[in-house]
Batch of 2 targets.
Target 1
Amino acid sequence: MKVLVITLAVVIFDQVSKVMVKGFSIPVLNFQYKGMYPGQKIQILGDFFRLTFVENPGMAFGFDPGMDFKSLISIFSIVASIALLIYIYYSRKQMLSLRIALAFILGGAIGNLIDRIFYGVFYNYAPLFYGKVVDFLDFDFFNITIFGRSYDRWPVFNFADSAVTIGILVLLFFYRKGSKEEKTAVGESGSQEPLNAGDQQPRSDIKNF
């Protein structure tokens, strides 16, 4: 379960970045940090990479399922996160790459889940479970159409989204690699010559079978 350190790091980094973008206040200390205003753009690498503060009302890529489904999405995300945590526990003896990938995915899921559940209450604009996800990473990769909407830039995202993407890519890469190695091992074992009748000891290359 040591890989959960990755999950914790993703959640902390994601939430700190979102709070710095959205702003926060500490009334007890009479301190207020304004952050960015909605729609504000800050160029980092020209038009290729900039910080653009938008709030995602629903699912990925800004798709809005409507208010009637927002609480259901939050509840589903909670259940999915718990299921993923349980799976990480039961896969604790499996290959490290699998556990690292799952830890990244879990961290990303929890990061965005915090926004959906608590941000509406924290920032006093919506009840529990009706918050909006803070997005701000804005890249100009290529034009794309998703859910019937056309984008001249890659949809604005956050570090939680990045963690989920990294986790999925790690899963795909090592799953394919593991499948190829398994097929190779099966092919090699199937080509072994049978033992001679007079052999007293098993061959060293098949002694574990």
Target 2
Amino acid sequence: MYCTKCGVELRAEDKFCSQCGHGAGAGTGVAMMEAPRVLMLDKRRKKIAGVCAGFARYFDVDVVLMRVLWLGLAICSGGIGFLVYLAAWIVIPSDCGAAAREVAVVRTPQTN
């Protein structure tokens, strides 16, 4: 979630923005903005290139369903679906396993 006043990213348990002090959460009556969805290749759940996994994450559907839809598109379109898949693989930016790195950073113990 993000602060509606200054745009700083907030944790779910925050009641106020640490940057500007603006109220956050359900108790204050202030609406919170959700993080914008970005279409990116999903390298963690990929089978070939991450195109289907990226579209599944973007549209919030099951990865298997998205793979079946892509396969149906590729077969029924006479091969144009394969070309669209290749174009998506080239054009859509990769997340480079960003979520996996974020988890690794959180779990890394601090040494002093």
